[in-house]
Amino acid sequence: MAAEIFETNSPDETFNLGKKLGQEAIPGTIIAMTGDLGVGKTLFTQGFAKGLGIDEPITSPTFTIMQIYESGRIPFYHFDVYRIADPEEMDEIGFENFVCGDGASIIEWAELIEEIIPPEAIKITIEKDLEKGFDYRKITVVK
Q: pLDDT tens digits for 68-117?
């Protein structure tokens, strides 16, 4: 697995990196995303959705666990598993059917359900470094 490291210095740059990956996404693309609260996971996801051609507002589905968007060139399944206590809870929403389906998926807080993430998932970690500036982000992409 090859790792690429991107450094962004503004919300727009983080959004645009997400958009670029969304433009490259094909059916079956799975992104397992990790990073502390407030690092820009949802902002990156909004860019990814834009890259898929989705113009509707993208919000983090923290309380619903999953949001489905079908207005882009392929379906987009956005998961936020922050509130999942046990990975088996994901069976109740049909997690496997979505991530192994005909769309692209992003899973925020993927480390909480690591054992059920498909091995082919792209792993993205977003980190802050306040010494490099408030908007600085180090984004590691492992394919």
A: 999 999 999 999 999 998 988 998 889 998 998 899 999 999 999 999 99
**104-108 β-sheet, strand order:** 3-8, 137-142, 122-128, 30-34, 104-108, 76-80, 66-69
First to last CA, the chain: 6
- In sequence order, the β-bridge partners of residue 133 are none
The fold of 3-142 is Rossmann fold (3.40.50)
What pTM was estimated for this model as a whole? 0.94
3-class state of residue 39 by DSSP: coil
Q: Report phi then psi at 54, rounded to 5.
A: -90, 125
What is the amino acid identity at position 38?
Answer: G
Residue 116: how many other CB atoms lie within 10 Å: 15
Residue 20, burial from CB neighbour count under 10 angstroms (0-12, 13-18, 19+)? middle
pLDDT digits (tens, 9 = 90+) for 38-74: 999 999 999 999 999 999 999 888 788 999 999 999 9
